[in-house]
Backbone:
């Protein structure tokens, strides 16, 4: 699962894993376990460059070790990193959950776990991220447009897109 923060990668990823009866992994949680501190702390203590290095190593481990069939929710910047993108495209079926700006703002405004949005204008930052990253996310194997809808509806769209892709 790839996409911007608030697109639904974790929520839909968990539901998809349950539906397929396979494990679900949140790469940010794996990064926190490996680093021994939160993503917010890694960003503030070591910076984004070091965070991306750790993220790449963790995702490489997740994509190349058993169980090989699992749903992975990536951090919003993971797929932007060329090495990570290449790894994902070579080792996985990538699903981009594409959401519009207003929906992303609505879903992220109440959380304090988004390092890039802390103490800033979230709409402005998310708009810049859309302009910068949506073209790259478009390289994912599957794109699913999400909306302010029931999660089961989004899950159904993801399942349909995967079935269409693999058949």
Residues:
């Amino acid at each position: 699962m790839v996409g911007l923060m608030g697109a639904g990668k974790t929520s839909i990823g968990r539901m998809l894993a349950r539906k397929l009866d396979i494990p679900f992994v949140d790469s940010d949680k794996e990064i926190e376990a490996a680093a021994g501190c939160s993503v917010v702390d890694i960003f503030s203590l070591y910076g984004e460059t070091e965070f991306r290095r750790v993220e790449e190593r963790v995702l490489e481990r997740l994509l190349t070790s058993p169980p090989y069939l699992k749903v992975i929710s990536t951090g919003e910047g993971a797929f932007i990193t060329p090495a990570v993108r290449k790894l994902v495209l070579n080792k996985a079926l990538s699903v981009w959950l594409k959401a519009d700006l207003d929906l992303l703002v609505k879903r992220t405004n109440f959380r304090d776990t988004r390092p890039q949005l802390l103490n800033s204008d979230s709409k402005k930052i998310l708009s810049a991220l859309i302009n910068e990253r949506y073209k790259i996310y478009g390289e994912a194997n599957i794109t699913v447009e999400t909306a302010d809808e029931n999660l089961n509806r989004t899950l159904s769209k993801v399942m349909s897109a995967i079935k269409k892709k693999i058949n």
